[in-house]
Every structure is written in structure tokens, then in C-alpha cells.
Design goal:
With 302 residues, this protein is an alpha/beta fold. The chain has an 8-stranded parallel β-sheet with strand order 1-8-7-6-5-4-3-2. Helix 4 links the parallel strand 3 and strand 4.
């Protein structure tokens, strides 16, 4: 493994922030506000960013907007952060996005779960292999939400593509994660808890060393407090943070995560940091629910 991949692996064993994509009054991406939100994350101590993640409304952005978000992130972060660019859709689109990220200087790509009603395990390997082989210089991180996928298939992918270095695992089952990681190779990959702070303690106990976060947009210090506790093995301390963010994450997870991004943007709007608008199929919170989110955000040490 190259020194570059070691640097990338270290970057994944951290709070992997998923920035929101703010929209202007006319509904377009708001570059100035996006840059300001990135600076807030960077100034708050965040060093790994994932533009075009689900909290960034990846599937609601058009190709030009996804390229813009990538460009803005890399320009604003400079040398201050490692960039893990979200790519996906059909194979040619994902490959083009990965190559675009490479040209701009990103060091890694995260491959979104294939959106297709019929995903075979062999086809999952083929999909990721086509993307990974197109950008052998980049670290590749599959985003796994498929509970049927086996660890052996991930091992097959990495046998063919040594640049597959980490995994964002987002199946809500800590026991399944523990088995999957060991079947694939616990020490072979960096395991990122892909369901963020609520699952981080249980996933860290089973071998994860990083976690993704959308909450970090609102309160970077809260997310950093959790990973510091987990790194030191202070699970009671981590659970104190868990209790602190519990209600916020319950609101995001309700009704099949219908308001996952909505709640984050509502919190940011309550702090005057961006507009609350999200794109369909998401929807802004009704007036009756906004006060609770604002109170939670105000109660954190921002």
C-alpha cells in the first residue's frame, strides 16, 4: 500500500463530515453560503469532507451542480482537509465524476449504493470495480446499505482493486456489521460507521474507527467530542454525547428518515447560517415543528 493510501486511510478514521448544499432564494446552489458553511466546519476542526453525500442532497442535484459542489469544496478546503467526493448513478456517470474529482485534486471517492431495483452481489462487485479501476490513484470507499451483501464480496472487490481502502457501512445492525467486517477483513479496510453518531458507539465497539456526520454541520464540537471519547475508549463519555444528540437524531430518523436533511437545514436556518429549503422528495419542516429543532441547536455549545 502506498503512503498516499495510508494518508487517506487515516483521514477516514475520523469525523467524516457530509456538508449540506444550501440553496439560494431562486432555488439554485448558493456558492457563497456553501463556502461559509465549509469554513465553519474547517474552523471547527473538521478535516475530512464528503461533498455530494446524502446530507448534501446528492440525488436532487443535477450533474453540473454536483461538479460545482465538488469544485467549491476543493477550492475552499485547500490543504486544510481531505476530500472524499460522492459519486454514483450509472457507471459512466460515476466514472466521469470520479475522474473530475481526481483532476481537481481530491484524494478519495465514496461510491453511493447502486440505485437499481435488482442488485446482484456479483453485479455489485462489477459496478464498483468499473469505478475503482478508472481512478487507481484515488482511494475508493463503497457506501454499503445493502444488508444482503456479504463480506466475502467486498474482499473479492479489494482483491481486484487495491485502491478500495475503506467502507462506509450503513446497515442498521451492529451485529451484522461486526460479522461483515470480519468476513471482509477487519484490518484490511477502514470501517466508517455510516449511520453517524447514533450508531457510532456500537459500531466502534465492533471495529469502526470513523463515523459520518450530518449533525456536524450544526455543531462540529459535539461530533468531535464523541470521536475523542470513542478513540480513548471512554464509552460512558461517548454515550453522554449520544444522549445530548438523541432527540435531534430521532427527528431526523422519523418516518423512514423523511426529514434527515430537513432537520439539519432547519437547525442551520435557526442559527442564521443558511436557508431551510430542501428539494423534493424532501420537504421543509412545518412551522409547528421548527421551534423544537431551533431549541436543540441553541442549546448546544456552537
Amino acid at each position: 500500500m502506498t503512503a498516499t493510501f495510508e494518508t487517506q486511510r487515516a483521514a477516514l478514521a475520523d469525523v467524516v463530515a457530509i456538508p449540506v448544499t444550501p440553496f439560494a432564494e431562486d432555488g439554485t446552489v448558493d456558492p457563497a453560503t456553501y463556502r461559509a458553511l465549509l469554513r465553519r466546519l474547517l474552523d471547527g476542526g473538521i478535516t475530512t469532507l464528503t461533498p455530494n453525500g446524502n446530507t448534501g442532497e446528492f440525488y436532487a442535484l443535477d450533474p453540473a451542480e454536483r461538479r460545482l459542489v465538488t469544485e467549491l469544496t476543493i477550492e475552499e478546503a485547500g490543504e486544510r482537509a481531505h476530500i472524499l467526493v460522492g459519486v454514483g448513478h450509472d457507471v459512466p456517470t460515476a466514472v466521469a465524476s470520479a475522474r473530475h474529482a481526481r483532476e481537481l485534486g481530491a484524494s478519495m471517492v465514496m461510491v453511493h449504493q447502486p440505485v437499481h431495483p435488482y442488485v446482484s452481489q456479483g453485479g455489485w462487485v462489477d459496478y464498483h470495480r468499473a469505478i475503482a479501476e478508472a481512478v487507481p490513484e484515488l482511494g475508493v470507499v463503497p457506501y454499503i446499505r445493502n444488508a444482503q451483501l456479504t463480506g466475502a464480496r467486498l474482499a473479492d472487490l479489494a482483491d481486484a482493486c487495491p485502491n478500495v481502502i475503506g467502507v462506509k457501512y450503513a446497515v442498521p445492525d451492529a451485529s451484522k456489521f461486526a460479522a461483515f467486517a470480519r468476513d471482509a477483513g477487519l484490518d484490511r479496510f477502514v470501517w466508517v460507521a455510516g449511520l453517524a453518531e447514533p450508531y457510532a458507539p456500537s459500531y466502534f465497539s465492533a471495529g469502526a474507527t470513523g463515523f459520518t456526520s450530518g449533525l456536524v454541520n450544526v455543531a462540529p464540537a459535539v461530533s468531535l467530542n464523541m470521536i475523542e471519547a470513542l478513540r480513548s475508549g471512554d464509552y460512558p463519555g461517548a454515550m453522554k454525547v449520544w444522549e445530548q444528540i438523541r432527540r435531534f437524531e430521532e427527528l431526523r430518523a422519523a418516518n423512514g428518515s423523511a426529514n434527515n436533511v430537513t432537520v439539519v437545514k432547519e437547525a442551520l436556518a435557526s442559527l442564521g447560517l443558511c436557508r431551510r429549503e430542501v428539494r423534493p422528495p424532501s420537504k421543509p419542516l412545518p412551522e409547528s415543528e421548527r421551534a423544537e429543532v431551533a431549541a436543540i441547536a441553541a442549546g448546544w455549545s456552537i
